[in-house]
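Data deposition worksheet. Section B asks for the primary sequence of the deposited chain exactly as it was used as input, without tags or linkers unless they were present during the calculation. Section C holds the resulting structure in token form. Section D is free text for depositor observations; keep each observation to a single sentence. Incomplete worksheets are returned to the depositor.
Section A, Depositor: J.P.
Section B:
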Amino acid sequence: MNIGLGDRGRRYFLFPAAAIACYVTISYLILPATWSRIEREPGLSHLPMLTSTAQGIPGDPINVGLIGTREGVISAFHVAGWYPADPITLRTSAEIVGSVLFDRPYKDAPVSPLFFEGRREDLAFEKPDGVSADRRQHVRLWLVLANGADASPVWLGSATFDKGVTLSRDTGQVTHKIAPNVDEERDQLVGDLNQARMVTGIYQMRGIGPTLNGRNGEGDPYYTDGEIRVATLVGRGNKAVEAAKMLPAPALIQVKDAAFSWASPRH
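Section C:
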């Protein structure tokens, strides 16, 4: 009888001990390991990877990186069928309203400004999805390193899909509402550049981290696995022989991404 009670006591002790061991392993070993991976651009590790509006409100997440010169970036988007965005003026603002109201093309419509590290975007590109300017793929880009790990300029960007227009709650200007799945737009952008043979390599780096209920500066919801797709571009006037393959992320990052994909609203 005493032996049986001893066995039960050991089982009662082993269960919480095993639970504690699992917690310690996951919280102090596995999860920290997923975020302590060695990045290819260590000069970016201190950045917040989130844009802001002119009023300082958190904006769209950083989800794209490009390695190449300014001329190389402009050339790559041109070959891939993307258009540089016009500056915001009274004329371009009226033109975008006319494009939406009368379903007229405006392939280089302006984008509202966002800020990263206190600076407005250096470049912006878009690709219409339909006739008018109300639906489009677009990206804002900031030059963040003049000389990265391989001595080439490094750009970070925020790529989102505009699914319709509205008026800014802060300025009253015409602005767009974004689609919530910003990872889809990130992948589409890098895919377009790669399909156009403008890319020699693709890899992943840490962004803002997994986010299921983000809100941008206009209050639009978004979700993301928190990763950045970084593409190394060919030089201006060149083309890659074949499409590049993305380098695999560390195993624990792949597990994290798979778990997020399962938990994300698209499922």
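Section D:
Residues 47-263 form one domain.
The helical segments are 2-35, 70-79, 90-102, 182-195, 251-263.
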